[in-house]
Amino acid sequence: MKAKKIITTSLTALITLIIFLSGLMKFIHFPWSVAGLEKYNPSVLGLMEMIFIILFFIPKTMRIGFILLCCYFAGAMATELSRDASMLNPGIPLVLIWITAFLRDSSLFIGFPSSLATKD
Length: 120
Prior knowledge:
Radius of gyration: 15 Å
Strand content: under 5%
Mean pLDDT: 87
Number of helices: 4
Structural class: mainly alpha
Largest sheet: none
Order of helices and strands: HHHH
Distance between the termini: 13 Å
Number of strands: 0
Shape: globular
């Protein structure tokens, strides 16, 4: 049980750091980070990413953060699909978010009883 808690905490910290830094780079307009995003207002997108991942990181707001992050990255995947680009850029963080959310609270997913959920 202790190993699961270490893995969950490490994965949560890693995905939080990755997505927060991604949002910060969009917010402050790093050239290579905002390439192709000029018409989508990268400052707002970056701010949204940072707010959503902070909500996901905090245990009491994890559920709403999870929903908002899923919607955000699903929209990013739809945008990539409409431009015939690779969906791996938004897909990889989304998969990591789902894995982290499952480890933190499996009751978010249909078919998993809440008795399996780990409450922090």
